């Protein structure tokens, strides 16, 4: 009898364990179903957002003007400032300094820099300051198509135009248009005028220091004018040389050597070629 009672007790305990296991299994199954439903809703929501973004991008690209006129607009602007267009190819030193400072992903990005845009959006959400982020394509779009305009709609238009510029012109053509129309301060429009005006030499003969000075001017041409504000220009030159070193264009030794000459020495030929 004792063995029968023990067996019945074990059987009862096993049944209770089985019921608890079944209940837990049912609970896990309900939890699993809820998790699957949540994941499916999230996927559908994300897909809807992506579809909306693609449609919005398509509409924006459709309603913004064609960039087939970019070359002719650049020519008109250059002519209005009495500068040659298209002129010679942009020299390596200036191009390298400009890219290192203004848009180090130039050539590999799709006209806009997704990382920079993410920083700008994050700064806007958190109340941070202006994080920059305009690529050379966007800057060129601004100069050619939206000069003097601002606001979010204009910035969206510039993004669309930048993408079109990227896939309509070679990088060399983008640099030539940009260098021909951008303002370098002191009344100088275009690289050739700025190079001759500040240093008394053509762009192809610029030293690394002089190329860095010019590349640094496009952000704030009047503020960094080396003839009027040599100390600020020097600080900006250091930044550009630092970017050239950081991106591997210059070694540490060459970067240090590039900063050896004073602003007065660099600009002693100012006045024209």
Condensed summary:
This protein is mainly alpha-helical and 273 residues long.
Question: What does this molecule look like?
Answer:
The chain is mostly helical and 273 residues long. The protein has a single domain (67-266), classed as Biosynthetic peptidoglycan transglycosylase-like (Penicillin binding protein transpeptidase fold), CATH 1.10.3810.10. Helix content is 67%, strand content 0%. The chain is built from twelve helices and no strands. The chain has helices at residues 2-63, 70-80, 92-102, 114-126, 136-145, 152-168, 171-181, 191-199, 208-217, 230-246, 252-258, 263-266. Helix 3 crosses helix 9 and helix 9 packs across helix 10 (230-246). The radius of gyration is 31 Å and the shape is globular. The termini are far apart. Mean pLDDT is 84; it is low at 1-10.
* Global geometry: globular
Helix content: 55-70%
Task: Count the DSSP helices.
Answer: 12
Q: What is the CATH architecture annotation?
A: Orthogonal Bundle
Provide the number of structural domains.
Answer: 1
Q: What is the CATH third-level topology name?
A: Penicillin binding protein transpeptidase fold
| CATH superfamily membership | Biosynthetic peptidoglycan transglycosylase-like
Q: Compute the average pLDDT.
A: 84
Content of β-strand:
under 5%
Q: Over the alpha carbons, how many angstroms does the gyration radius reach?
A: 31 Å
Low-confidence stretches: 1-10
Report the top-level CATH class.
Answer: Mainly Alpha
The largest sheet, given as strand count, sense and whether it forms a barrel, is: none
Number-wise, the strands total 0
The first-to-last residue Cα distance is: 119 Å
Q: Quickly give the structural class.
A: mainly alpha
What is the string of SSEs from the N terminus onward? HHHHHHHHHHHH
């Amino acid at each position: 009898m004792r063995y029968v009672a023990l067996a019945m007790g074990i059987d009862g305990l096993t049944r209770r364990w089985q019921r608890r296991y079944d209940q837990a299994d049912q609970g896990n199954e309900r939890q699993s179903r809820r998790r699957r439903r949540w994941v499916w809703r999230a996927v559908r929501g994300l897909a809807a957002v992506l579809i909306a973004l693609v449609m919005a991008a398509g509409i924006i690209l459709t309603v913004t003007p064609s960039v087939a006129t970019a070359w002719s607009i650049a020519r008109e602007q250059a002519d209005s400032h009495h500068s040659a267009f298209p002129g010679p190819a942009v020299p390596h030193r200036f191009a390298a300094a400009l890219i290192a400072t203004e848009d180090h992903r130039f050539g590999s990005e799709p006209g806009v820099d997704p990382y920079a845009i993410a920083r700008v959006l994050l700064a806007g959400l958190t109340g941070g300051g202006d994080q920059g982020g305009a690529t050379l394509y966007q800057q060129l779009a601004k100069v050619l198509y939206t000069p003097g305009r601002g606001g979010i709609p204009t910035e969206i238009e510039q993004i669309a135009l930048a993408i079109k510029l990227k896939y309509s012109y070679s990088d060399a053509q983008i640099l030539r248009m940009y260098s021909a129309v951008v303002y370098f301060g002191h009344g100088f429009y275009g690289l050739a005028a700025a190079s001759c005006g500040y240093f008394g030499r053509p762009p192809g003969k610029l030293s690394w220091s002089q190329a860095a000075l010019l590349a640094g001017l496009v952000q704030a041409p009047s503020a960094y004018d080396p003839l009027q504000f040599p100390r600020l220009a020097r600080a900006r030159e250091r930044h550009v040389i630092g970017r050239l070193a950081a991106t591997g264009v210059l070694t540490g030794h060459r970067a240090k050597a590039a900063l050896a000459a004073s602003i007065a020495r660099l600009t002693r030929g100012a006045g024209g070629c």
